[in-house]
């Protein structure tokens, strides 16, 4: 395997690791907070709505958008690390 292929393979392994971690966080927030822990979170209110309901309706979307920005930042660092950046 050439050096370029090894570099590309390492790049994609790290990329997939980031994806799995970030999607796991999103799953934990959307499924965990919105469904599994809903009753426990409903004792807390935000803007007059139970926190479990808020996570199910809005929170997972907000977390997903934040994770998109985190992913972009991580990928920019990864691109620089492996020499794939545009600069």
Count of discrete alpha- or pi-helical segments spanning 4 or more residues = 3
End-to-end Cα distance, whole Å, is 27 Å
Structure class: mainly alpha
Query: Per the principal axes of the C-alpha atoms, what is the gross shape?
Result: elongated
What sequence of helices (H) and strands (E) makes up the elements?
Answer: HHEEH
For the biggest β-sheet, the strand order reads 1-2
Mean of all residue-level pLDDT scores = 88
Strand runs, count: 2
Annotate the secondary structure layout:
Layout: H1 3-36, H2 38-41, E1 45-46, E2 49-50, H3 51-82
Antiparallel strand pairs: 1-2
Helix pairs in contact: 1-3
Keywords:
87 residues; mainly alpha; two-stranded antiparallel sheet; 2 strands
Give a written overview of the molecule.
This protein is mainly α and 87 residues long. The protein contains three helices and two strands; from the N terminus they run ααββα. Strands 1-2 form a two-stranded antiparallel sheet. The model has no long low-confidence stretch (mean pLDDT 88).
């Amino acid at each position: 395997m050439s050096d370029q292929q090894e570099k590309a393979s390492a790049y994609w392994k790290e990329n997939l690791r980031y994806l799995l971690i970030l999607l796991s966080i999103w799953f934990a927030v959307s499924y965990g907070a919105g469904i599994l822990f809903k009753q426990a979170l409903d004792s807390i209110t935000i803007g007059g709505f139970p926190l479990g309901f808020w996570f199910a309706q809005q929170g997972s979307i907000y977390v997903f958008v934040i994770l998109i920005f985190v992913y972009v930042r991580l990928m920019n660092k990864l691109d620089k690390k492996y020499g794939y950046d545009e600069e």
